[in-house]
Amino acid sequence: MASRASQYRTVQAASLDRRAEPRHPVHITRATARSHREKPTAATLCDVSPYGCRLLSATEHPPGERLWLRLNGGMPMAATVIWCSEGRIGCRFDEALPRDLMRRLTIS
What we know:
- By secondary structure, the protein is mainly beta.
- It has helices at residues 4-7, 99-107, and strands at 24-35, 41-49, 52-57, 66-71, 77-85, 88-93.
């Protein structure tokens, strides 16, 4: 869960050697991203770890924006945009992905 101290602080994208867990490459087109009071937009999940993910989306989301992500038809999960560039979005999940969901996403 994100702490209140980091909620309003600008956070740079993590370099590969600073990540808590490695990202696993995936290509899941059944993903959506929705900001508060907006309609969900289609997205493609490119990589995922228990703590974050990278999406491709036609909709720009500024760093710090809160999103609801639905991955592979699962339940929506809260995330914060850490960076956004040229249709790519890096997000940090509010809570770590459950082990069974992580397994389903990476085995598919």
